[in-house]
Design brief:
By secondary structure, this protein is an alpha+beta fold. The protein is built from 11 helices and 25 strands. It has 3 domains: 196 residues, Nucleotidyltransferase, domain 5; 75 residues, Alpha-Beta Complex (Actin, Chain A, domain 4); 116 residues, Substrate Binding Domain Of DNAk, Chain A, domain 1, CATH 2.60.34. Strand 17 and strand 18 form a beta hairpin. Helix 2 packs across helix 3, helix 4 crosses helix 10 and helix 5 packs across helix 6.
Length: 518
């Protein structure tokens, strides 16, 4: 059967995921899943060789927590998911692939066969996490047209649907917007300029370990402590099933406190129970430090962009957790602006991904030779979220040194290089250790991988020039090239990755998943 020509945009979220496409008029529309819902919980139930994704998996979480995988997005870029599921240690790419496969199949119920998608990631995702996201899509039978940052996707959606663009899709005036994206498991801030049809990110920052679930856990801790105190040390958190149900109760309470000033929690465990009134003020006090972390990130991003709040013309809220009243109040106090909540925080990112997918497909369309050149519907430029460099040795001291080649918040795509020198007489190889982030000595950096140039001439003198070039693409994926100009040699280097799946593991899991579907 021929594949559909309609690409989809996927917001692969930590707690919920959303799929969208462009209808015949070019308008983005959210695709309901097989259960008839606009959003799909990013939760997987693994029961032997079979898997269930979404609402039914959430229902099973309280009774069979050992078979549940959730928040796998936080583990992307790691070798394994944070716990065993059904007694098996799984790569997070496999869990994410099952979610993506569910989203693809649900979209196919409406659109027919699909194999192409734009998938969004947090702007602060590092290169290994982006590589892992691409691998998960491949395992799910999807060709990634591109990866786009979630705040950038949201900005595109707002720009095209809210009305600060004219009928030609151009900004009525130059806009400098700040996107505050607080999702279920990750947090991002991006400052972006929209000028005509050009979308250009200036700076980005965030935290892949901060999201609505952390607010849930604070509430669960509060309720659990009160339960333990009332029942003389009996603690529901010591039981996996009880802890899972407590977290669900905390999530429901958080949502209720966004609408009401006070709610009463009723929680039972093994014949014991508690009724506990909680006010919005109490909730805000117990989570004030979490909100402060987002405030600190905003200030850092504005400083990186060399802007003040007075330079920002629009303040956009994205992500379901941005609905909490404390978020809107803090932002309006900080900025002096009214927040823009004109689109659904849940759907905006997927809609922006669908719009971007439409742009990419339009670029691919073959035009007759005599046809006038088409002006692109829009251009999108992102920035790097972390420093990229090489871990080297200081020749004077012998200490480790982080030689940054591409600084954070560099506009992408970009190619930059740096010169190094061989250290020893007769050196047979040159090893390039690629890292992301970290301080000047490389401490707290993320190892990306290792590249090695083999087959150097015998008796090579020390001090031979080695040029290292990084090419960082728009989607945050990296290529490395090494050159020995004095020997007139160069080579594109494949990265031996420090984390995630290599090609053999990817193929192995592809075969396993294929067999499980039969």
């Amino acid at each position: 059967m021929p594949k559909s020509t309609i690409p989809i945009g996927i917001d692969l979220g930590t707690t919920f995921s959303v799929v969208a496409y462009l209808d015949s008029t070019g308008r983005p529309c959210t695709i309901t899943n097989a259960e008839g819902d606009l959003i799909t919980p990013s939760v997987v139930l693994l029961d032997g060789a079979s898997s269930v994704v979404g609402k039914e998996a959430v229902k099973a979480a309280g009774m069979e927590p050992e078979k549940i995988a959730d928040f796998a997005k936080r583990d992307m870029g790691s070798m394994f998911y944070s716990k065993k599921v059904g007694g098996e240690q799984l790569p997070p790419e496999v869990i994410q692939s099952l979610i993506l496969e569910k989203l693809r199949k649900d979209a196919e119920l409406k659109l027919g066969p699909i194999d192409r998608a734009v998938v969004t990631v947090p702007a602060f995702f590092n290169e290994p996490r982006r590589k892992a996201t691409q691998d998960a899509a491949q395992l799910a039978g999807l060709q990634i047209l591109d990866i786009i940052n979630e705040p950038t996707a949201a900005a595109i959606a707002f720009g095209y649907q809210v009305g600060f663009l004219d009928e030609k899709g151009q900004a009525r005036q130059k806009e400098t917007i700040l996107v505050y994206d607080l999702g279920g498991g990750t947090f991002d801030v991006t400052v972006m300029v929209i000028d005509g049809t050009d979308f250009t990110a200036l700076a980005t920052g965030g935290d892949v370990f901060l999201g609505g679930v952390d607010w849930d856990r604070r509430l669960a801790e509060h309720i659990g402590n009160k339960f333990r105190d009332k029942h003389h040390g009996f603690d529901p958190r010591q039981d996996a099933s009880g802890n899972q149900r407590l977290l669900k109760e905390a999530e429901d309470t958080k949502r209720a406190l966004s609408a009401r000033e006070q709610v009463t929690v009723s929680f039972e465990h093994v014949g014991q129970g508690i009724r506990l009134p909680i006010t919005r003020v109490e909730f805000e006090e117990m989570t004030a430090d979490l909100l402060e972390r987002t405030r600190f990130t905003i200030k850092s991003v504005l400083k990186e962009a060399k802007l003040q709040w007075t330079d920002i013309t629009r303040l956009l809220l994205v992500g379901g957790s941005s609905r909490m009243p404390m978020v809107q109040r803090m932002l309006e106090e900080e900025s002096g602006l009214k927040v823009d909540r004109s689109l659904s925080p849940d759907e905006a990112v997927a809609h922006g991904a669908a719009l971007y997918a439409g742009l990419l497909i339009a670029r691919e369309e073959v035009q007759p030779d005599d046809a006038p050149a088409k002006k692109p519907a829009m251009t999108v430029k992102n920035v790097s979220s972390h420093d990229l460099g090489v871990l080297s040795k200081d020749p004077a001291t012998g200490r480790s040194m982080n030689s940054i080649i591409i600084p954070r918040n560099t506009v992408l795509p970009v190619t930059k290089g740096k010169r190094f020198r061989t250290a020893k007489q007769g050196q047979k190889t040159v090893v390039i250790n690629v890292i992301e982030g970290g301080d000047s000595a490389g401490r707290n950096s993320t190892p990306i991988g290792r590249c090695t140039i083999h087959g150097l001439p015998p008796d090579l003198a020390p001090g031979m020039i080695v040029e290292v070039f990084f090419t960082y693409s728009e989607n945050g994926r990296l290529k490395v090239e090494g050159r020995l100009p004095e020997l007139k040699r160069k080579a594109m280097l494949s990265i031996e990755r420090a984390s995630g799946m290599n090609d053999d593991k990817l193929n192995e899991w592809g075969e396993k998943l294929k067999a499980s579907r039969q």
